[in-house]
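ok so i was messing around last nite and threw this chain in just to see what happens. nothing serious, just curious
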Amino acid sequence: MKFSSINKITALVMLAAMFSPLFSVGANAQMMAKTMAKTLTDDQKILHVLNRLGFGARDGDVEKVKAIGISKYIEQQLKPAAINDAVSEAKVKNLDVLNLSNEELFTKYPNQGAILLAVAEKNGLQRRDLQGIRANNNAAQEMKADRMNNDEVEKKADQLSEAERQKYQKEVAALYQKYNLGRPQQISQQLNASRILRAAYSEKQLNEVMVDFWTNHFNVFAGKAATRWFLPEYDRAVIRPNALGNFKDLLTATAKSPAMLFYLDNFQSVSPDAQMGGNNRADNPNRRLSQTNQNGQMNPQRREQLKKQYGLSDAELDARLKQNQQIQPKRMKRGINENYAREIMELHTLGVEGGYTQKDIQEVARALTGWTIVDARGYRRAFAGVANGTEDKRYARQARLFGLPEEAASGTFFFNERAHDKNEKIVLGQKINEGGIKDGEKVLDILVNHPSTAKFIARKLAVKFVSDNPSETLVKNVAKAFHDSKGDIKTTLRALFTDKEFFAPENYRAKIKTPFEVVVSAIRTVGADTNGRQIQAMLQKMGEPLYGFQAPTGYPDTAEDWVNTGALLERLNFAVALASNRIPGTRTNLKQFEGKDRTQILDRSIAAVLDGEISPNTRAMLLKQLEQPLVEPKMETVADETDDGESMAMMPNQGGGRNRQMKTRLLAPSGNAEVFKVVGLILGTPEFQRQ
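result:
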């Protein structure tokens, strides 16, 4: 049912009235405090733990925690390796990208740029011709022609006839079919689904909460060029195994992760003094191409040498000579890139007021030169599959020029000694002259052990688990635990959970859930069964597509960043769609909420969803709304099922490929209309939006 503009206004008015407590960060907590004693009841403490250390209670969870005790439950959650998680693992077992290496992902879900290059070579095209195909094939812009601006690209695209474009596009499609290749979009879809499924069904709830926390803390944006190929490994090998481990190990793993290296450009950071193959080097193909005799003719012996070395025919060599075309790939851009050096101090360790200077950023960047990625865009692997090893030869030449390992797997971390700044550095007053990769590792040691890091991490954890405005005393106590344990995350969290402020009544149901927390907690509360795919559309509409935040800050975690009328409308929209079985791939059975009349349905639903805790204002608004036709906001955006391989479901103006809104039709409502109306509205209440 689509609603008119009048109905939409009515819905917004209803939302403004119902959600007014959310617009004042402490209002709902103050309201709850009036109805409770000076301390939380045992049941409230259990609910508080299930909401903060996990994604909310399922049916029967309160009783399970009550049976073993809160302290023992927390200790169990702090040791996830001992928890049986068969249900969650069964949910994700068919998502193949979760277990593939970066090289395997490049092979099975190739970068479309590499496939287009294969087509170009087959048709005798040059890279500039290739731009015409890409410009009209919804491909990403990472392979813009060398020395060509956008106007030139578009002009070249216009020179290709529609028939030519269709021909090349058909050839690309034929290659995908011939080699049973997947589209890169599928990588994001499967990884995002796994995040939703594990959060919703895992028994290791605290571990999943910390995976979400660290994924935002060490944010990587999937929409930047080749980054998405590195994210399954980033989740599997970097974030998950270290989520409750040691911060030093986690920081080191992120620093060497191809996902982070690519996202913040450190893989391109090279010492200005590095010898990477210049115009005076004997192995420079440009120099070799210019070696002609006095008559402008190349020595026949020299011609044969070049033809053999680069696999060219006489005609191809003549064409290259005539056009003065480089044979090797685009040279590595020289120079130090400070992006990662800045963010590792400002966002990952010390914090913006952590006491570092611009000079420290420069010195850290110097220490991290040479930390790079083998075959960063996966062209070598894709070409090996569809062009009989042509790209392997090309990569071998590049490897010789830039000091890269020919035998190493594509998409893996590599320290390039030749690109490293070998001079002494001084970071935060400490001299660094360890040599090679140890320079960067020494920087990580300095940052982890700095007092500002302990305080910065402690404050972020306190905001995550306690309140948007934790006391300085709490932050100080947690920072001490972090520092004394040398960054042990379990010890740090234990100090947080045992602090009196954690169970303070004013912090009960005081934090606004993020969209991800809303979605997962709703699935758990109503016992929904989902495949996690189309649910991703709801996260996009609510403002939190996974791996979709462009800035390195990651998604925020305070009420002021999530509470506005438009966002709340989308939350209610999701709640109603979930309860009424309108989301493809997700089913709910609300039989447990049924009753003999509307009042009984309401009471049972409030008891099951909100544990009976609801404000008089919210209950009055629910009763009023139940007398009206169910307002059904329009839902259009979903995860793309037929993507061209380079774009993804992203928020507006966040970059990373073409920025489109994909559409689908929601399913027709199913189930008991009276019940799903009540449950949907309750899932949209302020009480459920808080934890």
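not much to say yet. The CA atoms of residues 268 and 502 lie 44 Å apart.
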